[in-house]
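Researcher: Checking consistency across runs. Here is Protease HtpX homolog again:
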Amino acid sequence: MPRTPRTRFAPDRGLTTRMVSTMFFIGLLYVVFVGVLVVLLRGAWPIVLILAGGMFIAQFWFSDRIAAFSMGAREVTPQEAPELHGAVDRLCALADMPKPRVAIADSDVPNAFATGRNQKNALVCATTGLLRRLEPEELEGVLAHELSHVAHRDVAVMTIASFLGVLAGIITRIGLWGGFRRAGGRDQNTALLMVLIPLVSAVVYAISFLLTRLLSRYRELSADRAGALLTGRPSALASALTKVTGQMAQIPTRDLRQAEPFNAFYFAPAFSKDGMSRLLSSHPTLEQRLDQLGRISAQLGRA
């Protein structure tokens, strides 16, 4: 993993260790997954390798554009959003890091996210719902959280780590929908392959999902800590967290469902009222996040 350019965001060795470990296990899983597909689909191995490699490269190089487009982000100029740009300018100067592109997503779901494989290609986006609800200090706390993701490069790691799960999930769905069975004909060996491939894909998807969720929960706590230490106002971030989480309950279920697939990128998770996403959440609980910010506030007070 390329070395992260130094900023004034507090370094987090625990996050670095977890990112390296996750990338190692995801990479190992990726090699095993492709290897199994090559063995099972003997004659089609060149196609398997080309497709897997092509999708991986596309996911890495275009991840920021794909994510921004999917979440409705529209890049804005300082003239269009002077308050948002001003907050990002102040935080980037404070953190001694390059200014990312700034965007707004037209959504009433109060949230923010960052994308980009490195600091030069980064984009930070806030929704109209967030901008309308937060006070300036609260908004800076949220933006500091998102900028720490860029500084620590965990956005890029999450994007790469999630790729194998996406690929395995697609193959699993094709198998469950009967796509392999229809293509397999009546040959007994082919029929066995059509059962094994979705089964292997499902196992790989489950392992990849768990690994990325474990990393995601830790990186959110790390971003809260780094953002609070940079601004010196953990109470503002805690206030934003409480306000955003409370407002989620008032958002229409349809809008929350549209946002749920992107929870791993968001500042706070969007859960539909009847969803089961809380069981394997991409974020730590609100209580955990507030408890950590409370401890940071006490430490800064003593200092």
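Researcher: Does this match what you'd expect to see?
Model: One thing to look at in this run: Residues 13-65+161-214 form one domain.
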